[in-house]
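batch_manifest entry 22 of 60
target: Transcriptional regulator
source organism: Methanococcus vannielii
requested by: lab member K.T.
priority: normal
notes from requester: please return tokens only, no post-processing; we will run our own comparison against the previous entry in this batch. if the run fails, retry once and flag.
--- input ---
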Amino acid sequence: MNNLKTIDMLENDSIKVEIVTHESLSGSKTGRGAKTIYYQEKAGIKLKNVKITLKGGSVAIEAGALYFMKGNIEVKSAVGKGFMKNLGTSLLSGEKLFKPEYTGTGEIWLEPSFGHYAIVELEDDEIIVDKGLFYACQNTLEVSAVSQKNISSALFGGEGLFQTRIKGSGIAVLSIPVPQNELIIYKLEDDTLSVDGNFAILRKGKIDFTVKPISKGLGTMASGEGLVQTFKGTGEVWLAPTQIVYELLDMGYPLSSISGAGSSNTKTK
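--- output ---
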């Protein structure tokens, strides 16, 4: 197993969570597959697994994410507190209500992916993340869908009516849209962050999220700018500014189409 490398890790008394990469893939049986792997490795794209070591603790995992496990581990379907309330919210938000819970001692490996992950630890705190980012967490954390607090953010924010709240104390794993070293993390102190785009993926602390025109004096037509996501208060906001680049490339747009004019902008004041 010397082909495996741990690139990130968090641990407490109950669990250890690792992001493990496969440093090279040499098992392709076709030239086409080998060519794809060759260029991915040249670009630094590594196959990854999330590995969770249970030390008598419990972890909830996104349904369908289990790859394999070893040890004395009991599995049950966990629906959490307030089943009927969560059921209605789940149906509206599209979030999966049933998240299998694994308890005991041993190893759990989640499905391999070329995607990206972040491990976060909360201490009597909460984070709000984009829908679909939750991947796994200790059962000491509560995961629920939370609706936007105002009409503007729900209708024009680009994040939908619901996002995901992770609350309590413990370790969580997020499936993020870009490598962690490409994130920009702003720590706000009674400050304002304005984002022209949908690449703010997480907020933490006492931060109000609204959507409004970028200029009070000019309409959006006159200013040449549209509505911006606004984060105001004290706390933390995670931005994934390179997300749009990968999305455009994946849709087949050439690099020349990615220009500064009319692109997403971020401002603090």
